[in-house]
């Protein structure tokens, strides 16, 4: 059985319907999972990421609070100590020696004149050497080594303006000794006696363990995690080299900020924009709280910091931090999530992802967790796959059971019935109707099949019963068909005869219009040729008078007895006659009149030649012809009808084609006359004729375009039908285009028309360059359907 036969069986179709229904159910389940399940699961997964992010923030805040408490205690201790070098060296030296390895330096930095009168710089600073031991550093008190005073540095000034008990954290920078990222915690130092500002206590915190902590959390969460400081400068990143750069102020290297990374990797822009918006909100909140204090602090921080090491943006952020931290609290229960961002193509993960942005209290650091969407949807995808697999496994037994039931109780009876019906069909085709009785359909337990069997058997009985009557009817019908065929053949012969007469009538009508135009064209040059000849005759009388005067003078000269006075008189008269002829320019007038007359004669000759070329009486057979010659000849013949039109041609160089030039001229003249008649009398008519070779180099293409009234769509579909015309009654027979179509088709070509109402019409003729012999083409009936 063929594929079409197998697909045409009822059981196969039923199974296909069941399979399609099951696929529709799977599709609906899939849509529910996609539109409802996956968003909910993704929301739940996102909640898990947010909870983990809050846990990370809380764990970092423990370390931050530890350093913050250390700075607060050190500030209180330093404010209460007497201002003695040995005491500060011993007290803070012991404190720094006991510091965790992550504290790589720190000290007490006194404001000018606050440690001793007239002493600009006095600091007690400790830093770890290359071996990791904490050592005292004195170079910050020496002007020659540190010309830029520490009390104008970018971490010192914000602490000066801080009006709270928390550290002011600097931006992230690279430690020149360990080459690791580091930040400075600065806390204002107040004199315990008068509570006056004495200076700043600072601790330098190494961030190497922060990066390791982020990596541990990254392994737990998935995707990647990084931290940025207040100014969105990176504290950590999965690939440290991507966010580190060297600058003139920090040749050892410093961390770039988020906007700088976005400029290098545009796919990071959504995250950078979110971080920027969070900082803008921070500044807006500070401005709303106390704009005057915010502006004063920002300008002071910017103006008093040396070497422009702090930007205007950073000074505003520090000012906002100082102002808002007064009311800042830390609660382990609160969520620190501030934004969720869709990242179409993360440059690290190289796939779509979702970024979760968290803000850290007091420091306003931001932590970003970038989670690939594939991870967020992995649970939903697994659930969807398991559900669909379970449905498929459950459907297969159902499908097999259904197939068995249909085959046992429905398909097999139908197959037996179809075989018997096929045998009946073969007997009917062989006209063996009597044998149908032996192929009646058996009874069936299926009610529907039983009904079909009974009705079919009844039909067999009727067929056999009416076999004889059908045979007689068939013989009668064959006779009627033969009679009708003979009548139709006679009608066709008459129709062809009528066609010949109509074609001749149309040709005579066209010839009549052409002759009338030619007569008009000949009459004009003939008229002015006659007038010129009459003028020539009038001017010749002047020369006759000159000849008469000359003869009289010659006779007087020959007569020896002639009077000299008489001779002189005759000479004067002859000369006067010559002068008058010269003055009147009779000779020039005669030459112009003769030239004009010759031009008129040439025009008449041109019309005669064009008329001969148009009719081609002496060349009516098929020959090699340049279609451009046919166009030129037909334009001359139609000149009288086209005299009010602006006729232009664009004729390309064409190869010769085999055609009947007389018939092609008839088609072109018909199109030219139709174009002239389609243009309103009060309209400036234009007719444009082009000829070219088509792109395949196999056909010559002629286009006749006018700017007439155009033809509507309904009429355009019928213009090539016989007797159909858009002209008024009596103005046309409706055969011109029908005959033109027949002529072009007999040449193996085609004719088509396009038109826009109110703009004009274009007729396109296509004739093959190498066509079959014209004489061998049968004449197509003009009125065939």
Walk me through what this model shows.
Its EC number is 2.7.13.3. With 785 residues, the chain is α+β, with helices and mostly antiparallel strands. It has helices at residues 3-8, 10-80, 85-97, 156-161, 208-221, 258-264, 269-304, 312-324, 373-376, 378-429, 447-465, 467-558, 564-583, 586-615, 627-637, 661-677, 713-716, 736-746, and strands at residues 103-110, 122-128, 134-137, 168-169, 173-174, 181-190, 197-206, 224-228, 244-245, 254-255, 337-346, 351-359, 366-372, 623-625, 645-651, 657-659, 685-693, 699-706, 750-756, 760-768. The chain is flat and about 165 Å long. Mean pLDDT is 78; it is low at 772-785. The strands form 5 sheets. Strands 1, 2, 3, 4, 5, 6 and 7 form a 7-stranded antiparallel sheet that branches. Strands 15-17-18-20-19 form a 5-stranded mixed sheet, covered by helices on one side. The longest helix is centred in the middle third of the chain and has 92 residues, at 467-558. Helix 12 runs antiparallel to helix 14 (586-615), helix 14 packs across helix 15 (627-637) and helix 16 runs antiparallel to helix 18.
Concise structural overview:
With 785 residues, this protein is of the alpha+beta class.
Summary keywords:
alpha+beta, HisK_dim/P_sf, disordered C terminus, 7-stranded antiparallel beta sheet, single chain, 785 residues
Supply Rg: 56 Å
- Could you report the average pLDDT, rounded to the nearest whole number? 78
Task: Specify the structural class.
Answer: alpha+beta
Strand share of the residues? 15-25%
First-last Cα distance = 43 Å
Helix content: 40-55%
Treating each run of at least 4 consecutive H or I residues as one helix, how many helices? 18
Spans where pLDDT lies below 50 across 5 or more residues: 772-785
Shape: flat
Number of strands: 20
Main beta sheet, described? 7 strands, antiparallel
Catalytic activity: ATP + protein L-histidine = ADP + protein N-phospho-L-histidine
Domain Histidine kinase: 517-771
Keywords: Membrane, Phosphoprotein, Transmembrane, Transmembrane helix
Protein name: histidine kinase
């Amino acid at each position: 059985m063929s594929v079409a036969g197998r697909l045409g069986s009822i059981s196969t179709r039923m199974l296909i319907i069941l399979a399609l229904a099951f696929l529709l159910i799977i599709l609906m389940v899939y849509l529910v999972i996609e539109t409802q399940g996956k968003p909910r699961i993704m929301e739940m997964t996102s909640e898990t990421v947010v909870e983990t992010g809050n846990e990370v923030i809380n764990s970092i805040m423990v370390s931050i609070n530890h350093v913050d408490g250390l700075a607060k205690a050190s500030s209180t201790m330093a404010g209460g100590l007497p201002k003695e070098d040995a005491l500060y060296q011993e007290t803070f030296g012991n404190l720094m020696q006991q510091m965790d390895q992550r504290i790589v330096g720190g000290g007490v930095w006194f404001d000018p004149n606050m440690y001793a009168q007239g002493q600009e710089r006095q600091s007690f600073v400790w830093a770890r050497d290359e071996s990791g031991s904490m050592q005292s550093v004195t170079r910050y008190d020496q002007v020659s080594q540190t010309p830029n005073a520490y009390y104008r540095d970018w971490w010192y000034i914000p602490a000066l303006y801080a009006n709270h008990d928390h550290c002011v954290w600097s931006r992230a920078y690279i430690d020149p000794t360990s080459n690791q990222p580091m930040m400075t915690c600065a806390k204002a130092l107040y004199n315990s006696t008068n509570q006056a500002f004495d200076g700043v206590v600072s601790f330098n915190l190494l961030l190497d363990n922060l990066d390791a902590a982020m990596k541990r959390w990254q392994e737990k969460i998935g995707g990647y995690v990084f931290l940025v400081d207040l100014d969105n400068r990176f504290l950590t990143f999965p690939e440290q080299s991507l966010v580190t750069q060297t600058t003139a102020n920090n040749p050892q290297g410093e961390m770039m900020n988020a906007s700088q990374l976005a400029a290098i990797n545009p796919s990071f822009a959504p995250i950078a924009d979110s971080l920027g918006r969070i900082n803008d909100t921070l500044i807006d909140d500070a401005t709303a709280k106390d704009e005057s204090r915010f502006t004063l602090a920002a300008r002071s921080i910017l103006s008093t910091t040396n070497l422009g090491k702090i930007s205007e943006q950073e000074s505003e952020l520090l000012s906002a931090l100082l102002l808002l931290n007064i009311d800042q609290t830390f609660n382990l229960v609160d969520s620190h999530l501030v934004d969720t961002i869709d990242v179409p193509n993360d440059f690290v993960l190289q796939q779509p992802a979702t970024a979760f942005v968290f803000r850290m209290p007091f420091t306003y650091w931001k932590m970003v967790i970038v989670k690939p969407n594939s991870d967020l949807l992995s649970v939903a995808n697994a659930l969807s796959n398991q559900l669909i697999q379970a449905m498929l496994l459950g459907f297969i037994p159902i499908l097999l059971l259904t197939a068995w039931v249909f085959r046992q109780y429905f398909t097999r009876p139908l197959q037996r019935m179809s075989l018997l019906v096929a045998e009946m069909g073969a007997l009917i085709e062989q006209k063996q109707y009597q044998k149908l009785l032996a192929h009646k359909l058996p009874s069936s337990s299926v009610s529907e099949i039983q009904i079909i069997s009974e009705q079919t058997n009844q039909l067999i009985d009727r067929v056999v019963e009416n076999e004889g009557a059908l045979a007689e009817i068939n013989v009668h019908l064959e006779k009627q068909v033969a009679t009708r065929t003979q009548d139709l053949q006679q009608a066709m012969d008459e129709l062809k005869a009528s066609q010949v007469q109509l074609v001749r009538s149309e040709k005579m009508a066209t010839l009549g219009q052409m002759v009338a135009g030619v007569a008009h064209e000949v009459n004009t040059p003939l008229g002015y040729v006659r007038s010129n000849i009459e003028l020539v005759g009038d001017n010749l009388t002047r020369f006759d008078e000159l000849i008469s005067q000359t003869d009289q003078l010659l006779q007087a000269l020959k007569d020896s007895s002639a009077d000299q006075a008489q001779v002189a008189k005759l000479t004067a008269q002859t000369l006067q006659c010559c002068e008058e002829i010269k003055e009147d320019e009779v000779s020039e007038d005669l030459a112009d009149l003769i030239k004009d007359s010759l031009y008129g004669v040439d025009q008449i000759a041109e019309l005669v030649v064009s008329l001969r070329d148009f009719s081609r009486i002496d060349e009516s057979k098929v020959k090699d012809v340049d279609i451009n010659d046919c166009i030129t000849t037909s334009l001359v013949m139609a000149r009288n009808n086209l005299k009010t039109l602006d006729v232009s041609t664009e004729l390309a160089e064409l190869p010769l084609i085999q055609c009947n030039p007389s018939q092609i001229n008839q088609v072109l003249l018909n199109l030219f006359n139709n174009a002239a008649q389609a243009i309103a009398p009060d309209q400036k008519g234009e007719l444009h004729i082009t000829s070219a070779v088509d792109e395949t180099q196999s056909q010559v293409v002629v286009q006749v375009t006018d700017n007439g009234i155009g033809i509507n769509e309904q009429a355009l579909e019928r213009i090539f039908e016989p007797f159909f015309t858009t002209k008024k009654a009596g103005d046309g027979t409706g055969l011109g285009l029908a005959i033109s179509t027949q002529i072009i088709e007999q040449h193996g070509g085609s004719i088509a028309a396009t038109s826009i109402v109110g703009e004009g019409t274009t007729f396109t003729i296509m004739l093959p360059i190498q066509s079959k012999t014209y004489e061998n083409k049968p004449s197509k009936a003009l009125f065939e359907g």
